[in-house]
Amino acid sequence: MSLTAKPRTTSQSRKRQAGHHRHSKSYLKAYWPYLPMAAIVISGVFVNSLLSTGEGVLGWQSNFSSSVLLELTNSDRLNNGEPALSLNQQLSSAAESKARDMVSKNYWSHTAPNGESAAGFITASGYQYAVAGENLAYGFNSAASVNSAWMNSADHRQNILDRAYTNVGFGVAESPDYLNQGPKVIVVAEYGQPTGDGVLGLVNQPPAQNISNLDKLTGTNASWSEIALSVILTAAVVSFIFKHGLAIRKLLFSSEDFIIKHPVIDISLVFLATAAAVLGHTAGIIG
Asked: Which of 79, 144, 168, 196 has the maximal Cβ count within 10 Å?
């Protein structure tokens, strides 16, 4: 009489026996960490969509109205001991022309593709200036977020608070697919002081700057925040890959035999990577 060894039970044999979906303790131990990980990623996508909504939706005219932008500008000036600016129709016309030109020609710059600068749009409106300045923005969901981004950038802040300016004009335009990035609202602010002698001064045109969700939430445009987020995101991704590099390879062959030994660490790494990705996502651009 011969004895036959009992075959070893593997994940493949369990699959053939239709027993691989029984939610045993070992099954749950292996797979429950994926639930919070998936929830974290889904929540990150949802939060990012909330922070990015309103860029090109109904009601943008009221969100970016000249009256709101003027109120925010003068509030900042008064809080910093500077006199309020008056809304000037010629500067508003120049700002509106510049915003429409950026949409129609699909460019992002203080200088149009044909070489026309901010000075050209201002003088074309009939405004003769001793000094002038131009601030640009797109991708934001409200006038308040635009103004906050400008105030947290040294060059743009200088335009808002410059004591030499007495007038301001605002222009807003919407594009259904601005720079191939989908619907965006473009905001232009023209600042100036009129001159009676016909001699035109310089126009202050700040450089372009990306504003992340973290910048918007914290009210700062510090470059260190972008570096910190990049380091966190890279460290989290590298740690996850390093920890599971061999295990993931094993997973491709042994399926449910793969067991996550330290789920809390994995969940934390996924959370850090998702948070860094969401906070580092561009919320808007100023120029």
From this structure: 168
Instruction: Name the token pair of 254.
Output: 């042994």
pTM: predicted TM-score of the whole model, two decimal places: 0.65
Phi, psi (deg, nearest 5) at residue 123: -70, -30
Rounded distance, CA 272 to CA 263, Å? 14
Give the separation between CA 189 and CA 89, rounded to whole angstroms.
12
User: Which residue's structure tokens are 């129709």?
Assistant: 89
Q: Token pair of 87, please?
A: 């809304």
CA–CA distance, 48 with 234 (Å, rounded to integer):
19
- Which of 149, 159, 162 minimizes the C-alpha distance to 284? 149
Distance from C-alpha of 285 to C-alpha of 117, rounded to nearest angstrom: 19
Please give the structure tokens belonging to residue 90: 């010629």
Rounded CA gap, 141 and 185, in Å?
8
Residue 281: how many other CB atoms lie within 10 Å: 16
d(C-alpha 142, C-alpha 150), whole Å: 13
Q: Are 191 and 85 in contact (CB under 8 A)?
A: yes
218 vs 136: which has the higher pLDDT: 136
Q: Does pLDDT of 173 surpass 50? A: yes
Q: Which residues have a Cβ under 8 Å from the Cβ of 154 and sit 6 or more positions away?
A: none
Tell me the HSE value of 157 on the side-chain side, using a 13 A CA sphere.
11
Phi and psi angles of residue 129, each rounded to the nearest 5 degrees, phi first: -120, 150
Query: With 90 as the cut, is the pLDDT of residue 194 above it?
Result: yes
Q: How far is CA 10 from the centre of its chain?
A: 48
The rounded distance, in Å, linking the Cα atoms of 116 and 134 is 13
Write the CB contacts of 166 (distance below 8 Å, at least 6 apart in sequence): 83, 85, 86, 192, 193, 194
